[in-house]
Inverse folding.
């Protein structure tokens, strides 16, 4: 039928279509979706076709340029097969033979290797279809439609082998791709778009290059670490170290944190002790002297990763059969016309929940049953393995609850930093002047901790070891300057804040040394007095 059913509703003789999880650890494999009966299967297929048509109408049909002859382009469209593409075009009211006869125009936009376009409303080129060529021999992705098209202007990007998007019907609006898909707003120097800008290996590109060799005395550059997921199973707070069980193969990996290493919990900076054991975390690792990935530049829980990606879950169906069905979404944003729009959902998934899942909603602890359709969530998970997706250990429901949880973590860490001193690295020494760059896990939060620069006031500085522990008394120094950030944008653990302090004994310090800095008015640690 049309309604969601249970396994108990299936009867002998029912005709089934089944999707399975890619779970090699379970034999037989575990079915995740079942469509019972010809009617249900037909509806599911029709719904998928409608979704795919809407997807292509919004973005344009994918294809490539086979040849360029003067101003004429031969474009071959991509699809599963010719019949599928013909059906899609017919459903959209576009008959190529009619377009050819009536000299109706289409629009073509250059795309990159991921079929992403830059600025379609500006970049598009209109023109008529001049000829319909015979379908090529069958091949993977061949749609069987080959059109000779003449644009008004022959763009530099119209070259043989280049990918394009084709808006085949004049009713299809040529608009920017949904937020995050287009190239216009892509992040500068991201390793998926500009791998050549990274002179080292990253998780996505440059496998022929060595990994970046991180040093404890300087901030490693953006995206130089190898990210590994795993269950946090042990911590040693005094040594800034711990152990996790890898998602990939279950191996137990010991890690240590360099001075610039930071921890994120619920989107705010914290300590290893803020992460409950058993929490699934992400570890951004650099290699140690033996070449093993054990030096953690960042340790963050699943909720913090969602915050970093500006993603939340939205409940679509209340918990049933131990699962919560949710959509992944990003918040409303302004388009290029400065209008607020709601981007399309990123996808859908099922969050496993059980009797041990803790839920926070409305400022207090609740139950999974209290979650309602439309609730916005962040979630942490437990152990993830080849045979288990990891049940949610904690769920925070509602924008107010999420904001309050993050703010609580932020204030808790801020109080700790004020008590211990702001950690930083000496990056330069010129005469009596020490340049200090502060360590922070969340750049946006650090300026409010500083609460302004201490012009005309002293600061108190202690030399530390690589575990951030002071190795002597705090020393009174003068605040000399606040410099602009150097080439550390995006570097792991770097706040971007550079202070210059005036020391009476600069010979006692060296570049790369770890310090802690207290502002005037912040209490000195118990048992310590400021030295001059």
């Amino acid at each position: 039928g049309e309604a969601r059913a249970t396994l108990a509703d299936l009867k002998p003789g029912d005709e089934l279509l089944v999707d399975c999880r890619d779970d090699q650890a379970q034999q037989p494999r575990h079915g995740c979706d079942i469509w019972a009966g010809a009617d249900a299967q037909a509806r599911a297929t029709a719904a998928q076709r409608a979704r795919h048509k809407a997807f292509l109408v919004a973005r344009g049909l994918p294809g490539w340029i086979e040849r360029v002859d003067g101003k004429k382009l031969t474009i071959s469209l991509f699809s599963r097969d010719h019949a599928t593409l013909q059906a899609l075009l017919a459903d959209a009211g576009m008959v190529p033979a009619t377009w050819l006869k009536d000299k109706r125009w289409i629009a073509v936009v250059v795309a990159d290797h991921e079929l992403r376009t830059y600025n379609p409303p500006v970049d598009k080129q209109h023109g008529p279809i001049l000829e319909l060529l015979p379908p090529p021999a069958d091949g993977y992705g061949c749609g069987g439609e080959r059109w000779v098209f003449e644009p008004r202007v022959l763009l530099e990007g119209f070259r043989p082998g280049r990918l394009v998007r084709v808006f085949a019907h004049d009713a299809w609006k040529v608009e920017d791709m949904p937020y995050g898909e287009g190239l216009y707003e892509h992040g500068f120097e991201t390793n998926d778009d500009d791998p050549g800008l990274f002179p080292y290996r990253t998780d996505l590109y440059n496998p022929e290059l060595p990994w970046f060799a991180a040093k404890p005395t300087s901030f490693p550059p953006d995206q130089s670490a190898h990210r590994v997921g795993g269950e946090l199973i042990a911590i040693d707070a005094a040594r800034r170290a711990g152990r996790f069980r890898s998602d990939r193969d279950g191996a137990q990996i010991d890690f240590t944190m360099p001075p610039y290493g930071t921890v994120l919990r619920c989107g705010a900076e914290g300590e290893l002790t803020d992460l409950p054991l058993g929490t699934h975390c992400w570890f951004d690792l650099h290699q140690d002297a033996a070449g093993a990935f054990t030096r953690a530049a960042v340790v963050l829980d699943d909720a913090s990763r969602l915050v970093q990606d500006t993603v939340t879950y939205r409940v679509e169906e209340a918990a049933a059969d131990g699962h919560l069905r949710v959509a992944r979404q990003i918040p409303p944003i302004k388009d290029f016309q400065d209008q607020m729009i709601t981007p399309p959902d990123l996808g859908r998934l099922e969050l496993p929940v059980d009797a041990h899942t803790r839920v926070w909603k409305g400022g207090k602890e609740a139950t999974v049953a209290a979650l309602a359709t439309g609730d916005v969530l962040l979630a942490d998970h437990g152990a993830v393995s080849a045979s288990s997706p990891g049940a949610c250990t904690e769920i925070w429901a509602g924008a107010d609850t999420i904001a309050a949880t993050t703010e609580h973590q932020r204030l808790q860490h801020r109080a700790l930093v004020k008590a211990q001193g702001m950690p930083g690295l000496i990056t330069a020494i010129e005469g009596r002047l020490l340049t200090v760059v502060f360590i922070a896990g969340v750049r946006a939060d650090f300026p409010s901790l500083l609460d302004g620069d201490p012009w005309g006031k002293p600061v108190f500085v202690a030399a530390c070891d690589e575990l951030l522990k002071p190795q002597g008394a705090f020393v009174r120094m003068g605040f000399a300057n606040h410099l602009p950030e150097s080439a550390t944008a995006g570097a792991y653990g770097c706040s971007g804040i550079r202070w210059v302090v005036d020391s009476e004994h600069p010979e006692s310090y060296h570049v790369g040394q770890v310090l802690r800095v207290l502002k005037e008015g912040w209490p000195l640690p118990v048992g310590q007095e400021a030295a001059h």
In short: The helical segments are 38-59, 82-91, 96-102, 120-123, 302-308, 399-420, 446-450.
